[in-house]
Specification:
The chain is mostly helical and 272 residues long. Helix content is 59%, strand content 4%.
């Protein structure tokens, strides 16, 4: 459930917006939006800072319109993603700062630069979790560095589908590097992980006992699971996981992290 932005929210949002615009741009923007502009109407008593000028304007416009829409409109104008196309880090910081306020009222600025409804947070801790980047979240799970190595750009934009796809390709690339076999997908796995004539072995596992063979086949099954679930699906709506789900993405990366940790301890038998 949403609620109208109060004076506290307007002040905090004004302070954020003031960091990402210039005074001259504000004059033009207020004129174009037909917003009350204290500095233009009272040139002899200009406000001291940009954020106070923004706050003064938004309080007046929200009072007149009995709505929070003037705040949303100004956010969308100043934080237009097209204006930050060469500085994506600044855009993400600005968006995170304004969302840190909006989330408490049931709104958020999305990646398109538009204000949309959102699930309202009620605590500081909940807000911090919502605002944390996906890459930082997976760091809590101690995900193997080889997982993110192949999908840094996709992680930056939180494109879960392509991040998972590229990370799964990274698993196969690592198997090719260890085995020196230039196949792909399940064909690669089936060729290099054969109990009777293996190309890759887990260090210390000579496949002599049932336990050792079970461990080896467990790795093989894990790798095939990653291929079938995450490498092979070409549609943006795989049936076995939700490509828009953060939880499903973390599950995928956890499985791939486990695979990489085991591969850390694998060798090519030809090198022995």
């Amino acid at each position: 459930m949403t609620k109208a932005l109060d004076a506290t929210a307007i002040k905090e949002i004004s302070m954020v917006l003031g960091e990402y615009t210039k005074g001259s741009e504000l004059t033009k923007l207020f004129f174009r939006l037909n917003y009350y502009d204290h500095d233009s109407l009272s040139p002899n008593s200009k406000l001291s800072t940009k954020w106070r000028r923004i706050e003064n304007t938004l309080l007046e416009e929200c009072r007149k319109k009995k709505s929070s829409k003037p705040v949303f409109t100004l956010c969308q104008q100043i934080l237009n993603p097209a204006a930050f196309i060469k500085t994506p880090d600044i855009w993400n910081t600005a968006r995170q700062e304004v969302n840190g306020i909006l989330l408490f009222y049931g709104y958020q600025l999305n990646d398109l630069g538009k204000i949309e409804l959102s699930e309202k947070v009620s605590s500081f801790t909940e807000a911090q979790k919502r605002l944390m980047s996906f890459e930082k979240k997976i760091a809590f799970h101690e995900i193997h560095p080889e997982v993110s190595k192949y999908c840094r750009e996709e992680l930056f934009f939180e494109d879960y589908f392509h991040a998972i796809l590229e990370a799964s390709k990274g698993i196969l690339e690592r198997i090719r590097h260890i085995s020196q076999v230039e196949k792909d997908g399940s064909s690669l796995i089936e060729e290099v992980f054969i109990v009777k004539r293996p190309i890759i072995l887990i260090k210390g596992n000579m496949l002599n006992t049932l336990t050792e063979r079970s461990e080896y086949n467990g790795l093989k099954s894990l790798l095939n699971t990653i291929v079938y679930m995450y490498r092979n699906p070409q549609a943006h709506e795989p049936k076995l996981y939700n490509p828009k789900s953060e939880t499903d993405a973390i599950t995928a990366f956890t499985l791939m992290s486990l695979a990489h940790r085991i591969l850390d301890n694998c060798v090519n038998v030809r090198d022995l």
